[in-house]
Structures are given as structure tokens and as C-alpha cells.
User: Fold this.
Amino acid sequence: MPESSLPQAPVPDAHPPISPLARLALSMHGRPPAMPVGWRDGAVLDHAHFAARMSAWAGLLEGQAGRHFALYLDDSIEFGAALLGAWQAGKTVWLTADTLPGSCASLAASVDGFLGQFPAAHAPLPLPADSLAERAWTQLADDFPALVVYTSGSTGAAQAIPKKLSQLASEVATLEQLFGEHADGAAVVATVSHQHIYGLLFKVLWPLAAGRAVHAHSVDYPEQLAALLARGPCVLAASPAHLKRLPQHIDWSGARAQLRAVFSSGGPLALDSALAAGHLLGRVPREIYGSSETGGVAWRQRVPEHPDDESWQGFPGVNWRLMDDGALEVRSAHLADDGWLCLADRARVTAPGRFQLLGRSDRIVKIEEKRISLNAIEAALLATPLVLDARVLLCDAPAGERQKVAAFIVCSAAGRALLDAEGKLALNRQLQTALGGQVDAVAVPRRWRYLEQLPINAQGKTTQALLLALLEKPRLPHARLIERSAEGETPRLLFELHVPANLFYFEGHFTGAPLLPGVVQVEWALHFARQHLDLPARFRAMHALKFQQPVLPDRPVRLALEYDAPKASLQFRYLSDAGQHASGRILFHPNAAAVPDGGADTPTPAASAC
Assistant:
């Protein structure tokens, strides 16, 4: 049966009083067994299921030595049960935004074990079977060491931040005080992960404490999001990166009828993006300002009548003040103690109780004993007509060598035209010349990467780790669209690809004679097709896959794509002057836009091709 036709449990119009986090396990166990806790792939999950899962995780961890355990699960409902079960077992849970090798290595030095979907090399404990045994649920102490979370890493290396239960409880109570009336009777939908503090609060702790149902999987594609939001009263937790990319051609009328509130966190949302999202979704996002270290600090909701008002309203219970240099300081129950914490953000007072952010003060670096502002370099790049978006950072250098600045550029139309016509070196020189009169010579970037868009993680943030990974080995070729079918015809695209010799996928495949793996060719076809075509969200099958001759480094190759919409079929071919290299057809579920929760169990083309 299609998920869209599965029966849905009604969301109650009213909820029990919000449960203190110290008693949350007791509250969850004491709620009516048939009360819905949420949905997974369209199926209703009730509190009886949740209590059994919570008991299973507690039983598993009570038998484990050590106190500190890393937890990573995609499913928010299972994650919530594991989190509460771990707390009942007296364990401190460490959260990471991803399971990349560097993140796992950092965790391995600090934890006693791994839980959930970590790589097998770290021997994660298996998911426990449901427990039917009765157990005594306990009230936790307010100073219970509940979590260790990591900063996002947007402006530097991620740092571990411990959180007491009282800090998390204070945040949940504040969210209910501010926004509870907008969320009552509404299910929680999210495009962000609960592995970060924002998603953890909005998608797990606050809904569980307030008795609101959640959709277990984060939503990856706009088509899925529109269909899911239209299914009943709901609130949406998203990020600026997700909200500013909402496509206008999708029918959002159902979402406009059902959405009660939209939340955004992870960075400020530009006025035009906030209002555009409000136009499509029917609710202008409520933006949350805060961090992993501070918790929530302030919020705002933009209005077209006052476009120049960029100010933030402090959360109740959060005190703030400005230092002489404009640095913002905060004090609240969301922090580890009652002292003032100085932030890296600068601000100015705009009205009683309101402030405007003026940028960060911590992006000053030293190169050759000179103080260099990375923000100033970015501003100078953005001032050129060649650049649409830019990030710069300081790269580590071998001993004895000078550190270099790296620039990551999203080109404007003019910049892309120059890049396509004259190449990377010509664009490098143009931008270096533009910086010459504004930036010290030692700070002019020496390493350049030109991107279709800045990389973002599951929280919609561009982190230093993601940018540094781009300097190591590229994973995509340089692509230029050279032909496109006319409107009304069968969609056809032709790309010219340059496959660099330092491509990540050449490593080990094979030594001395690098060849592009077939699975990568399939993924590239899907990647470039999704950039330019309106494809269904879910992969179904792959047919007629053939690899006639290898794709080699630094050899030009063309990628031809043709999409048959009635059959939901994408045909791809790799060609060059030497003939055809590979071909195949990727088939999709034609009704994928109506499938909720991201279709997490559907195999990807890469998995099938392997």
C-alpha cells in the first residue's frame, strides 16, 4: 500500500502539561499506550512501542562498563528512545553531526562505546530487541551529565560542549513558553538532523516533553516536504540553507493550509529568503539565534512592513549585554553556570531588549605576523561582479612554510562565463587583481575552488571540515552544460566533463592505471540530472547498464542525459572521440513526491550498482 494512503493517527488538539526532562522517562511510560508518538514510513508508532524501545536500550546499556557512549541514529523516534534509555542507565551520550573518519576518531578518544549507525570498525553495539520486562523508571538529578554536543565547526574545529540535564530542561521550557501555542495540535516535521542541538531540541526533546507527534525521518527533497506538510496540522524545523532553496514550481498550497509555524536556525536568514519562504509556506520563519555552547539566545520574525529591522528579541530568562568593543555577552540557565559568557558575535542595541548582529570578531588570523581579517577578504570577493558567494579560511602548512589562504567561490553568471571561456587560472588572476588594492599581499588566496554551491551538512551549515575536504581530493568533475533541448521537447542535456587526475575516486582504482569506477559514473549521471531536471525523489531500479571502455584522468568526456517523464526513466551515456564509454537507464518511483519521511529504506543507485 502506498505510504500516502496509510491510515494516520489523529494528532490530539490538546496535550498533557509539558514534562520536566528529569521525569521524562516516567512521563513517557505513564502516557496512554495508544497515544501516538509519531510516524515512521507512514506507519503510526504509539507510546507502548516507545516505552518498549526505551526499556530495551536501558537494559542494553545497564550491562555495559563505562559511562560515556557515542550515539548516532537517523531515526528520531528510535534516537529518542535510545537517549532516554541511556540516561536511565546512567550514561552520558555524546552526539556527533556525522560519522566521518575524523569525527569517529575524535569520539574514540573520549567514549567507552558506540551506539547505532557507526562504521563497523568502531564495533557499535547492536540495536537491542524490545524488552517486555517491567522496570522501575527513576527521576534524574538536575545536574545529571546528560550530553556532550559538538559545535558546528562553521568557523573553526568543532569543540565538545558538555550539557547538564538542567540546561536542556531550561531550553525546552523556554521553547514551550514562547512557541507552545503555535505548536499545539501539530505534528513536527524537520529537514534538519537531531544530531545537532537545534534538531535535538525541536525534533526530539521538546516534542517528547510536550507530547507532540514527530515524523521519524528528516525530509530530503522539496517534493516530499510539500506532500508531508499538506497531510495535517504541523510545524516545520528547517535551516536557512533549506528554506532559501524552496522551489517555486512545486505546489505548496497544502502546506500553506496546514502549517502552524516554521522555525529556522543555524545562521541568519536573509530578508528576501525569509519573505519568499513565507510566501510559499504561508508562515514567515521564526529564526532562532544561539549556538551549541549558549543554547537559545534570541529570536525574530521578519515582516515586509519593516524591511530594515534586522533586530533580535532576547529569549525570556536570557540576559545579554554589550562590551565596550561591541562583543555580545549572555547569561542564562541554558549555560553551565550563572556567569557571563562572551561570544564572538558583535552587536548593537536597536531598541529596549533588542539587538542587531554586526558580524563575528573571531575571524582574525596572523600570517607573517600580520593581523588578517578573513571576513574582510570575503567582503572584498563578494564586492566583485564575478562572485555570488564566498568563504575563505586559513590552511595548515608544513613546518617552515607560510600558511596560505584558501578561497571557495560560487561564481556569478559573469564569473562562470569567464571560467568556462578562459579557465581557472584566468579567473584566479582576475580575483587576485581585484583583491590587490584591498587585501595585504600575504592574505591574497593562493588556493581556489570553484563550486556550484557551498557544501552544507545535515544542519544546513557550511563547516570548516567540509571546506577543507574540498582541498584534499575533488569528488566531482568540472562540468559545463553545452546543449539543452528546447522547452516542450523531451528533456535532453549534454555536458562536457573534465575529470581531474587528483579525483578522490581514482585513489586505489587502480594503482598505476587509474580508472573511474562504474558506480561513480552512475552517481554523476544522477547528480547532474537532479541539478537541471525535475526528477522523482526515490530510485526504483537500474536497467541496461553497460561499461564499454574506461574513463581516464584528464581526458575530456561528454555526458548525455535524456529523461522520459511518463516512464520516470533517466537514460545516460558517457561519450568521447574514442566512442561510447558507458550507458544505462535509472528508473524512479513515479509517485515518489507523495512518499513521506524521506524513503530511508529505498536503495540508492550506487548501492544497487555495487
User: Anything to note?
Assistant: The chain has 16 helices and 29 strands. The radius of gyration is 25 Å. The first strand starts at residue 36 and ends at 40. The CA atoms of residues 99 and 574 lie 33 Å apart.
